[in-house]
Write a structure and sequence with these properties.
The structure is a single chain. Strand 1 and strand 2 form a beta hairpin. Helix content is about 35%, strand content about 25%. The longest helix is centred in the C-terminal third of the chain and has 21 residues. It is an alpha/beta fold. The strands form two sheets. A six-stranded mixed beta sheet has the order 6-7-8-3-9-10, with helices on both faces. Strands 2-1-4-5 form a four-stranded antiparallel beta sheet, with helices on one face.
Length: about 230
Amino acid sequence: MITIDTLTVRAGGRTILDRLTMHLSEGRIHGIAGINGAGKTTLLNALYGFMPAASGSISRNGRPLRRRETAYLESEQFFYSGMTGRDYLDLIRHYHPSSDPTPYVRLFALPIDEEVSLWSTGMKQKLALAAAFMQEKEVLLLDEPFNGLDMEAVYAAQRMIAAAGRAGRTVLVTSHIFPTLEAVADDLFVIDGGSVAGRYDRSEFPRAARELEVFFRRRYEAAFAEK
């Protein structure tokens, strides 16, 4: 069990996560939905140790969650100038010698001997996905993994996520687009304003979609009524 207990994270003089609490069962795929700026990326940054908590805690089975048991796909990718896809994957293998990129290179047809700076946004995202999955870590943090992908690649990424869940890995997937999570998640957390606004099991996803629609309608009807 990964337990996030009353987690508060601040940056730039404002509170981004406000006493957020979540209980995440092991070996399941947890969807995290919310509009841009809701706190999804900050949550994953805190889980990976990129952002310190002002208060609260993150633990796994009663001890702190360790970075070495976690792989993180960030929402924005960075590749050094002149780096080829092979260079990038070799760098991952240097730190994770047992990892094998071959299945993912074949799946996505990655042109790994070409300079990554010349690749399309979608191809760069496929490379980053390959790097995250090939590490075979117990906990997998995926921040907006479907960004920039075409329909075929979205399908492939969803199948990769589902396979990771079946293999007993704990996966957290964020998205601001509900249907992409609906296809893979075992449960869904909706974050709004830095806190959990709702939690839904898979059988409750239709209700989640209806409640999100009502929530958005009220918010934007109120916004337009003020003008």
